[in-house]
Amino acid sequence: MALVVHILACLLGTGSWVAINGMWVELPLIVPRVPEGWYLPSYLTVLIQFANVGPLFVTLMHHFQPGRLSEAGTIYTIVSLGALACVLLAFFWQATSVVGGTTRSTALLVLLFFLSLVDCTSSVTFLPFMLRFRARYLTTYFVGEGLSGLVPGLVALAQGVGVVQCVNGSLAGNASGMGLRAEYQPARFSVSLFFLFLGGMMGLCLATFVLLNHLPAARQERAKERFQAQARVEAGAGLQAVVEERPMISPTEIHRLSSYFGTGTYSWRQVAYIFLVLAWVNALTNGVLPAVQSYSCLPYGSSAYHLSATLAAMANPLACFFGMILPNRCLLLLGLLTAAGSGFGCYILAMAALSPCPPLLHSHAGATLIVLCWVLFVGSLSYVKLMIGMILRDEGHSALVWCGAVVQLGSMLGALTMFPLVSVYSLFRSGDPCTTRCPS
After folding, report:
1. Considering only CA atoms, which of 293, 9, 276 is closest in space to residue 142?
2. How far, in Å, are 182, 198, 305, 358, 437 from residue 432 at the CA level?
3. Whole-angstrom Cα distance, residue 199 to residue 372?
4. What residues have CB less than 8 Å from 357, skipping those under 6 apart?
5. pLDDT in tens, 47-97
6. More confident: 75 or 225
């Protein structure tokens, strides 16, 4: 029956960010049919940051009013809200209204805010909930979280989102256009059906949460409370030992008690280091690099772009599977992997900055290198996030709440850093997937 719980934990993780990840991959079909046009991704970025009011509220309630906010009740509420928002999007995503004399996609923007609120709040509710189960199920949850990006991406791929055909400019009806130009092919099924699929995924997530709460097999896999009283029989004394919630500390180390966190395994310096790495990794993976993926890949062709997006999405759950087999919580190793992943990220950022004329433009080596860098970047940092999650899982419920809060904080800082660079100052320029003219 443990396999059933693994599947349920994976499905719960998949529901954590599937709605917003689905929105991102569907943008090429939505953008041409809404008044906001290509400003919509910028609006979505801003809405996600405003939605961080959800995790902020949960974190503050946990800190100042512990126990007052029902964890299960919160999850039931946000997942139900997410499913409802996806279904409403299927019917009203093209509805517009005039705001301040300008036509706006009011329904789309409002419902996107609620979806962002759901997914952001999941970071500070799903992780602490998984503390109720044995430690091995947290890894499965992270596998599912990786699939939350891969599954909608594969569905969008089957839908035909972003499929480009290079046609001769004059043959395409442009008398003055010479050479090749990109034409996006029509989708195999509608945007409304895609939103209904996302609603079905959120409904599946809700059913999964119900089963994790009430299924007997799931209840059998619950972990014991971290600080449950543990009686020990002293050898030869026949007396019940005193119960401890922290490891024993020698008298010479009592003055250092304030420097311990959770179980007392890590000093406050190490805890600060762990959270700093967590914030940095999420800033890169959720904010900085996604903002420039098209700029870094499209100059090498649409195939390089789609391969990097698909294989990088696959690298996340694969890294989590690797973490199941070879877990390593050494802080030095995690620091080295973070540095390596950041190095791959720097290369990607440099190629985006040099777009539309990066090095190795017209060679297979350039396309191969950018795809490989994306896979290694996502894979290495996904492993780091998993190991930090496992570390903080052992530190208790409060540590996992702060883990979710730091994930959102890092993601927010990364997104807010890139928003003006990409959308306001236009420091990055797109390459043409069919032809790019660069000085020799």
Report:
1. 9
2. 8, 31, 11, 12, 9
3. 33
4. 299, 431, 436, 438, 439
5. 888 898 999 899 888 888 887 888 899 999 999 999 999 999 999 999 999
6. 75
Can you give the three-state secondary structure of the chain, one letter per residue?
Answer: CHHHHHHHHHHHHHHHHHHHHHHHHHHHHHHHHCCCHHHHHHHHHHHHHHCCHHHHHHHHHHHHCCCCCCHHHHHHHHHHHHHHHHHHHHHHCCCCEEECCEEECHHHHHHHHHHHHHHHHHCCCHHHHHCCECCHHHHHHHHHHHHHHHHHHHHHHHHCCCCEEEEECCCCCCCCCCCEEEEECCCCCCHHHHHHHHHHHHHHHHHHHHHHHHCHHHHHCECCCCCCCCCCECCCCCCECCCCCCCCCCHHHHHHHHHEECCCCEEHHHHHHHHHHHHHHHHHHHHHCHHHHHHHHHHHCHHHHHHHHHHHHHHHHHHHHHHHHCCCCCHHHHHHHHHHHHHHHHHHHHHHHHCCCCCCCCCHHHHHHHHHHHHHHHHHHHHHHHHHHHHHHHCCHHHHHHHHHHHHHHHHHHHHHHHHHHHHCCCCCCCCCCCCCCCC
Distance of CA 174 to the CA centre of its chain: 41
The mean pLDDT of 28-47, rounded to a whole number, is 82
C-alpha distance from residue 120 to each of 117, 174, 255, 308 (Å): 5, 45, 39, 25
pLDDT above 50: residue 236: no
